[in-house]
């Protein structure tokens, strides 16, 4: 058996799979019945870790969105942190 790379990096991001790795893959129906049952039991999303976020619609100036989006993925989290910091500092 060859030494296989982990599917995810230390941040939990799934790496790009090679053609050879795709060839080794199996369809769901080819998995053992016990594994199929375990995977079926995982359906749906688990409970959200606290604090629970609330989805809402908000309008921002385009410059504000561009500032956070140009920094790449995670811009919503960074924007949330900036707003929390503004609240803590009494700016907002």
Largest sheet: none
**Protein structure class:** mainly alpha
Say how many strands there are.
0
In angstroms, what separates the terminal alpha carbons?
58 Å
Order of helices and strands: HHHH
Outline, from the CA principal axes?
elongated
Return residue spans where pLDDT drops below 50 for at least 5 consecutive residues. Answer: none
Give the helix proportion (percent range): 40-55%
Individual helix count = 4
Rounded average pLDDT: 89
Strand content: under 5%
Radius of gyration: 21 Å
Summary tags:
about 90 residues, mainly alpha, 4 helices
Task: Characterize the structure shown.
This protein has 92 residues and is mostly helical. Helix content is 40%, strand content 0%. The protein is built from four helices and no strands. The protein is elongated and about 55 Å long. The termini are far apart.
Give a brief outline of the structure:
By secondary structure, the chain is mainly alpha-helical.
SSE diagram, text form:
Elements: H1 19-24, H2 33-41, H3 62-69, H4 75-88
